[in-house]
Every structure is written in C-alpha cells, then in structure tokens.
Fold these 4 entries.
Entry 1:
Amino acid sequence: MSTRYDCRDPQWRSAGVDAAVAAARAGELIVLPTDTVYGIGADAFIPAAVTTMLAAKGRGRNMPPPVLVGTARAAAALVDDLGAFGQDLIDEFWPGALTLVFRASPTLLWDLGDTKGTVALRMPLHSVALDVLKQTGPLAVSSANRTGQPAPTTVDEAQQQLGEAVSVYLDAGPCADNIPSTILDLTGTIPTLLRAGAIPVDRLRTVASVIADNEDLVPSPDPADFKPAAPHPMEGGGAGADAPTDEGPSGS
C-alpha cells in the first residue's frame, strides 16, 4: 500500500522523509521531487530494488539508471577517478542540473544494469531530495514515469503512472522547472556532451574549456533518457544510456 506525504507542511515533510528513508533501506521504491522532474528511486546498493524500479518503469538492464547523491563526497567515493575536470565541475555546478558520467569504482558492490563500468551522477538542487539522500546514501533514480509516457512534474502524474509499485510518495508541489539536466561524459580524455539541458555548454566551457558536442543536440523530451551526441560505453554496442535523472532525475 502506498503512502503519500505533503512535504509543503513541515510536520508531514519530516514524517515523509523518515518514511522514504526507511522504505529505501528496506529495498522498496520511493518517489521524490527533484529540481527537474519527479523521480522514482531505489537504494543503489540493493540490486533487487534497482531491478524492481526498472520493471516499474517498463525498462530492462540495457537502460541503467543514474545515481543521485546528497553530497559531493558521496560522489567521489563512487568513482574510479574524477579526472581533470570532475572536481571543478562539481564545485561550480552542484547541487544543480548537471549529470556527470564517470568510470565507476571497481570496488563497488552494486548492480545498476549494463553500465559497462560507468556511472552517471548528479546532486539535485532540491531540499527534500537532499534531506532524503543525506540519510539513504546514493539512490538509483530515474524519472517517475512509465517508458514512453511524459516525465511527471507533479506527484499526481507520478502516482497515476506508477501506482502501488511505489511505497512512499513525497509531494513537494509542481516542479519549478522541467528542463532536463545537461549530461557530460568524463570517461574519455575530452569531456563529451551527451545531452543538452538546463546548463548551457558555454557555461560548462568556463570550467572545462574543451568539450566535444553536437550543435544540433537538443534537450530530450524524457529527462531520464540520454540522447547522445557521441558513442557512450553505458549502452551495449556503444550507443547511449539512461540518465536522471533526472531525471533525474538521473534521470531527474
């Protein structure tokens, strides 16, 4: 049975965050607001929970979710190397609508799907999401919609699509901005733009001066989907990958 909490009320917000944290730790699914769209989340270190989340969205292992973190330190613990620009980009744009793709640390005991050894990370600029993430640790999060349906900007839209598959819904009102996060791949020598989004590439170049991109790249209609400008190792065959969403949600 799903429970919904109105996080605009301080008392319900505290109870909702506690319930969401408990549910995630128990391997259940939650829906939480982000600074882009509502996301569906699962504990990133409980493989069965991640599999359940992908099934709730109607997706398979070939579309692994991004991971949301509550602190920059948490992100650093998940990656093999931040590279030449990772820390500077984090310092400048996190929390915010920038998803960064890194090589994942080989010591991680998780299974997000067919990631090909990479992980897409973001720290959202939303107080409710951060309250949850700082207690749960990293969450696998994708936009709270069924595949092929619009990404939800209200909890009503998320609940209509996901129903009882989700244990806890956190309602923080309509999302202020449903533009998806910008996705930047840092797994290669030169940073590569995988999806245009809320943060323009010109702003990114104030930190990382050389970024490979495609001038025709536009934001995708589903903030959880990578629309790659170049081949990417997170997808089988080097085609592209799921992101935060944003998002994201990753996906978010």
Note: The beta strands are 3-6, 30-32, 39-43, 67-68, 98-103, 118-122, 139-143, 168-171, 182-185, 192-195.
Entry 2:
Amino acid sequence: MPKKDPVVDGLAKLAALRGVEDRAALADGLAPLLNDRTGYVVTRVANLAAERGVREVVPNLIARLEKFIRDPKSNDSGCEASLAIVRALIALEAGYEAEAVAVAATRYVRWEPVYGGSVDSAVSVRGNAAILLAAMGSTQAVRCAVELLATGDSAGPREAANWPARADAARALTMVGSDAAAAVLRFKLLIDDSDSNVLADCLTGLLSIERDAAIPLAVEMLTGDESARAEAALLALGGWRDARSFTLLHDHADRFLTSGSRDLFLAAIAMTRQAAAIDYLLDLIPQAAPKLRDAVVAALEPLRPLPGIADRIDAAVKEAK
C-alpha cells in the first residue's frame, strides 16, 4: 500500500473544514492542523482561521509561532507559515496573550541558502509583528519599531533586504499615533533612509499624527534636490486624506511635469481623489502633448469606477483629438 503524502492528507482535511459553518466545530478541526509538520499546510490553516474569524485558535497560533521561532530550521520555507500566523493574529485582533511572541517575532531571523550565500527570509515576519504589537496597544510597540527602523540592509553572501520591515515599523508607529511615535518618524526622515518606500511611510505617518506641524518637512522633501526624498513626499501627500494635499502638490506642478518624476506626480494628484485634483487632470488632457496626455489618462485610470469619471475622461480624450 503506497505511503500517504502528509501534505495531501493535511490539505484534504482542510478542504473538508471549509464547508463547516459552526465556528466551534471549525476551531476544533483547525487547531490540530496547526501542528502539521509542513509549513505549507500551516500557512493555509492560518489563512482560513483569519478569513473565518476563528478567534478560538489564537492560543494555537501563538504556540505554533513560538515553535517556529525556537527552531529556525523548521519546515517553513520562506517563512510563509510564520508570516501567515502573524497576519492571522492581527486579523483576529489578538491581545496581550500574543505580546511575548510578537516581541520575539520582531527579532526573528531565518537564514536560507541561495546561490552564492544565504538570505534572511524573516523580514516580513519582523515587520508584521511590529504591526501586531501596535494593533494590540502594547507598550513594547514603539521600542520594537525603533529597533526595526534602525536596521540597515546588507548585501551577500548573507543578504538581508530589511527595508520592508522598516516600512512596516513606520506603519506600526503611525498606528500608535503618540508624540513619541511622531518623534521617531521625524528623526528617521531627518537622518534619511536608503529606500524611498520607507521615507514615504514615515512621512505618511508624520502627516497623520502631526498634521500641520509636519507640512514644512513635507514641503522641504518635495522641493529638495534628492529625487528619492521628493518622490517619497509625492507618495505621502498623495495618500494624505487632507484638503490641503492637492494644493501642496499643485504648487510644484511646473517642476514635476518636466521631471523624471512626472508620472508619479500625476498619480499622486489622482490619489488625493479631490474634485479640484480631478478637474486639474482632466483640464490637462486637451491641451497636453501626446506623451503627457497619455500619462494623465493613465493616472486617472484607477478613478474610472467613480461616478461620472469614465465619461469625463473619454470626453476629454475626444476633445484632444
């Protein structure tokens, strides 16, 4: 008789549970599957628990994450299962019962072999663990986020691209929303970062917390000589849900429309979703040169589902022709 494939067996059990409506019965079925030896199965169990809101398995998720952290050579390729568990704990609104493992997860490192050396596959686990601490209101959230923000990147043979964890740390500090969190974000912006995504998330957080007090630094970044900082400011201001965001961007239109950041500038304008911003972009279409016109239309594409916008875009393009 052929030997059973444990992965196939685990996935079959999980498939059978997808049709279970009773949450208690679903929890009873999911809990033992979190002890499966393969990370592939555990990943999907954690995802289903989060999807169905099965808070009863939070203790089991915590126990399995602790086991992964204790044994960095466990069967969890790419840290997919560890990451799925942390994200499930966030979705299930785990509280202080998950604080200790979340703190440990912010420092979890897992080296996996790649051609020419090894790579740290736990970067996203660390970043999401910081978000978990912020979500539960932990007093450890700021300290752990600061530690992640201070971690740089390293090249091979032991490669660690830590910028996603730094970006997540910035998001965690934004969730904390305190004066201390704002001070850390401001300090990070002042000393700079090698990745514009991190800068954008830091500025987004600072604008969210400090609002008026953060505007001078945003303008300084927007008008400075470093393109990475300017682009980070474009992203942050575009995503800032404040009536002033379009005005701050529009004031520097002449500069960005003739720069390599033109497309990002137009996308940032569209991201504000303000009526004045949409009118500005639509008015550009008939008078713009073909390449600029195409860039404006591309920036407006994500807004097509909004009422009346598709017809207005099509009318502006027709007028240009």
Note: The chain has a mean pLDDT of 95.
Entry 3:
Amino acid sequence: MSREPHYHDQRSPGYPAPRFRRRGIYLLPNLFTTAALFAGFFAITAARGGQFELAAIAIYVAMVLDGLDGRVARLTHTESDFGAQYDSLADVVSFGLAPALIMYDWALQPMANLGWLAVFIYAAATALRLARFNTQLGSADKRYFTGLACPSAAAVLMGLVWVGEDLGIQGQQLAWVALCLTVISGVLMVSNILYLSFKAVDLKGRIPFVALLAIVLGLGFASMDPPKILFGLALCYAISGPAMSVWRRRQRALRRRHHGGEPSREE
C-alpha cells in the first residue's frame, strides 16, 4: 500500500479548506519603535557635529515615542514577541549607546580612560537592565520597575546636557558632575530598587475634569523652561526609588519594633 500522503481537493464537500498561518509583523507599534530608533541614531550624529542641545532633544523625543509604542500595542491589541524584542534592541541604541556617546563627547572626553569607562558602565548597564526586564515580563509586578528604567536614566543624562547648553556652560566644566551622574544612573538601572511604572493608569477610562485641567497646567508649566523642568523631573524620579526604599525599610523596622515591644496577651 502506498504511503504517499493523499491530498483532498479544497473544493470537495465535507473537507474544510486548509488554514495557513499568516506571517508578518504589526505595522503601527513597530513604526513608533522605528521612529524612536531613528531619533536615537540622529542624536548620535547631531552630537558628532557639536549640536549637543539638538542631540538631547532628540533623546527626549525618542522617550515619547518609546512610551507610545507599548501603549499603542496594548490599546490596539497588537502586542507580539517580535515587538517586545525589537523595542529592547531599539532601547539599547536610543537610551544606552546614544546617551553614553553624547555624554562622552560633551563632557567626559578630556577625562580619558575614566571618561570612557564611565560611559561603558552606563551602556552595559542599559543592556543588562533590558535583558533582565525581558526575562521577568511574565512574573514581575507591573506596577513597579525593578531598577531605574533606561529612558529615565537617559533623561537624567540628557537633561544635564540640555541645561548646560541652555546656560552656555561647557561640558568640560561639569565633567565630574557628568561622571557621577553617568555612573550612578548605570548602577540604579541594574539595582533591585523599585520604581513606580505608572502602567496602572487606565488611558481608556474616564478621568475627573480637574485631572485634565492639571495635565494642561503641567504642560504649560513645562513649556516655560523645558530644559530645567524636564531635568528636574528626571532627577526627582531617579531619586524617588532610593527614597521610597529607605522609607519602606524604616516602616518595616518601626512595625517590627512595635510588635516586638507589645506584651503577650497570655501573660
């Protein structure tokens, strides 16, 4: 008896037509990811040409686009493993390599070995932080980030560059400040400190009118002096993680002391 497979005519009654799996990627969220990658690459080329303020702004644009791609994917139900991996690779460029190279060219180049070592620590920390994030996608508490998110770390570094350029301060004059911020931002990214992720915010739900008014006022306030206000917000968020961690430890210590000092009811 022949063992060759027998194929049925798709048009024959009683036999369902074969189902083929469609191959491809979702266009909309990956367009945002590609645009964020382009902004990061553009920032590198701008810094190489000495346009550091433009480079810093490009990284902030990449941050906005990076925040939108995930939101768009969730709202349109177009999430995919490809999109998650592509987003991480783009983040390595836009929030790892680009800020590191910009900071090196702007302030740390005169420090020679110490300068490039600092930016390497930052770039490596970005890659390690993203690798850890990808391995914890299914198990981590979505309300928090473990370690400082790499866009937030990039906002701290680029905020310093933008403020310095806005005030007419040469990067070499802030070399030690830039060095400390670069290394500390890298360490915070690979730390176990928890940061609020704000992913619990429901964009599809209703909000009070007062909340919308607060958003409008906040945007107006930020537009008054974007470099200083954005840099200040980035610093506050970076500090919030360690500050909340210290507060939680103190609260746990107080609770243990309180319960340990209570007399037993059986006495």
Note: Residues 27-200+223-259 form a domain with the Four Helix Bundle (Hemerythrin (Met), subunit A) fold (CATH 1.20.120.1760).
Entry 4:
Amino acid sequence: MFVASPYYALCMILGTGVSTLTGKILALNDDAYANGLYGFNGALVGIGLGLFHFGGDSDFFMMP
C-alpha cells in the first residue's frame, strides 16, 4: 500500500487508529478487538474515504 499510494496508506493508518481507539475507549467486545475486527474495518473505511474524496493528494486536508 505504501509503494502504490502513500495517500491511501495514510488514510488506512488513520482509519485503523481511529477505529481501534474508539473500540478501546467505548470498551466494546474484547474478543472482536483481539481478532482485529475494529482495525480491519477501520482500514477499509479509511481507504474508502480516501478513494471517494474526489481530489488529488495535495487537497487531502481540504476534504469537505
């Protein structure tokens, strides 16, 4: 992912971090957390947000 597009890699890392921290803060199911469910879904959401952000890499911080 980092070689193909650093932009999507950044979106994936941000999505994974936010979803993992949200799962921990809300004290959700520990088994799902241990299996990586929150991190995987967060990565998919992060890539999806990056994909459907109809702008270039330079416009990342101007996302509506």
Note: Residues 6-53 form one domain.
